[in-house]
Task: structure prediction
Amino acid sequence: MNRVVVTGIAGFSPIGNDWESIFSRLKSGQTGIVQMPEWDKYEGLNTRLGAKVDFSVPAHYSRKDLRSMGRVAQLAVVSAENALIDADLLGADILKSGQAGVAFGSSAGDTGAIADFGNMLLHDNCDGLNANTYIKMMSHTAPVNIGIYFGLKGRVYTTSSACTSASMGIGQGYEAIKCGQQKVMLAGGCEHLCATEAAVFDTLYATSTKNDSPNLTPKPFDEGRDGLVIGEGACTLVLEEYEHAVERGAKIYAELVGFGTNSDGRHITQPSAETMEQVIRLSLKDAGLSHEQIGYVSAHGTATDRGDIAETQATSAVFGEQMPISSLKSYTGHTLGACGALEAWVAIEMMRNNWFHPTANLTHVDSKCGQLDYIIQQGRELETDYIMSNNFAFGGINTSLIFKRWDS
Result:
């Protein structure tokens, strides 16, 4: 089995588009949650909160390049380009050799394109439709556009599995390299902010309605939490076979040593602590590690009652009450298809810097949550060789990733 390392990372998040900006926001406790007055027009939508990214398409993208890309694919492709630049692989021969592929996903395609088809069904009118409308709408719009833009001739995995889209992409990219099928994989996920996504959780009474105090929500694990906030973003990790990376003198961020995934097989929206615990143990087994070797857990931490309780009970069952844990979603909101990659990125960088962020807005841990070492109010200096990043999705799809510190 081949070793897999991370040689490039880039993305867009509601708290910054580079590690320096993100680190500054995490240190200062400044979240990316804002009011969304443009949603006032939607009658019956309770939440008015979201988390936006600062993004515009670079000038070198031509009209021809963009004709098949909605915003969600644009976020994906540009993050992939920046990650390739970071890895010093942009334009490299390996990309078109058949030994480089993509594993990427989003919860949905471009909602503007979906609306164009909705107009057809509602009004019996095909106005607004063109040859690229479906390409923008389809669930695999992100990986396909990445593959076409960079001329990738290797595997294309579409990992559109809601909140585990990005972590599943990283996991499947890891397995493709580990098993010798590819040398390089562009792995991650993306999402663009849309009121329809907020409405999904609104109908489940799972969104925060603290509309006048965006700086005070969401509150993962807190007894006073009132729900999640939807965000947007994208993140790409360049995964590379270790020997190939060393041979070309690549910079290495971390080694990906463990991946586990399973499903609840029980309920579409109600999580299972039992299978969450199992997926954590699966990733430990894949990595050949004991639970004592993990020094920090990046939680899924959505700030929903059932999710927070199930996840923390599962985590506590494996690691016990001494495990440091925090949730990036308290800063970025729930970025859906992007969250697994954004959270992996931040966790890797925190391991490299020996500093781990607290969960924003967490003051009183819900007594129903598992007994863990919740990082609260201020960041923590902590040195560890292994970190875990966990994500859980509708449909009962669970993922767990383990990264190892890289000392060059």
About this structure: The chain has two domains: 4-247, 258-405.
